[in-house]
Amino acid sequence: MTRSPRTIFSLLPAIFLTGGCAYSPSVDVLGSYFPAWMACIIIGLFMTLIARLLLIGFGIYPYLRPKSLVFPCMLIFFTLLTWLAFFKN
């Protein structure tokens, strides 16, 4: 059975999108498995709150513009940093 190149190229996006679905990383928290991505988001949120408190303490907070963009980007940065530090396998 031969497939046309059109069929093969139409399946490429599905192949690339499902390539990262090999396993579901989980963390054992008090005997219950917890999704690792959710743990990374929670850790990233706490790190962002700590960074905010440090910025307020150093007096830099009033000079941040736009705050509605800075803090979500900090949350994403700390979340991805946590993922890379603990779950990069």
Structural key phrases:
63% helix; 9% strand; single chain; two-stranded antiparallel sheet; 89 residues; mainly alpha
- Helical run tally: 3
* Helix and strand run: HEEHH
The strand line-up of the biggest sheet is 1-2
Q: Percent helix among the residues?
A: 55-70%
The global form is: flat
- What is the CA-CA span between the terminal residues? 38 Å
Mean pLDDT: 83
Percent strand equals: 5-15%
Number of strands: 2
Number of domains: 1
Strand pairing plus helix content: what structural class? Answer: mainly alpha
Sheet with the most strands, sense and barrel status: 2 strands, antiparallel
The low-confidence parts are none
Backbone CA Rg? 20 Å
Describe this structure in words.
This protein is mostly helical and 89 residues long. The chain has one domain. It is 63% helix and 9% strand. It is built from three helices and two strands. A two-stranded antiparallel sheet has the order 1-2. A hairpin with a 2-residue loop joins strand 1 and strand 2. Helix 2 packs across helix 3. The longest helix has 23 residues. The chain is flat. It starts with a helix and ends with a helix.
Q: Would you spell out the secondary-structure blueprint of this structure?
A:
Layout lengths: L4 H13 L8 E4 L2 E4 H23 L8 H20 L3
Antiparallel strand pairs: 1-2
Helix pairs in contact: 2-3
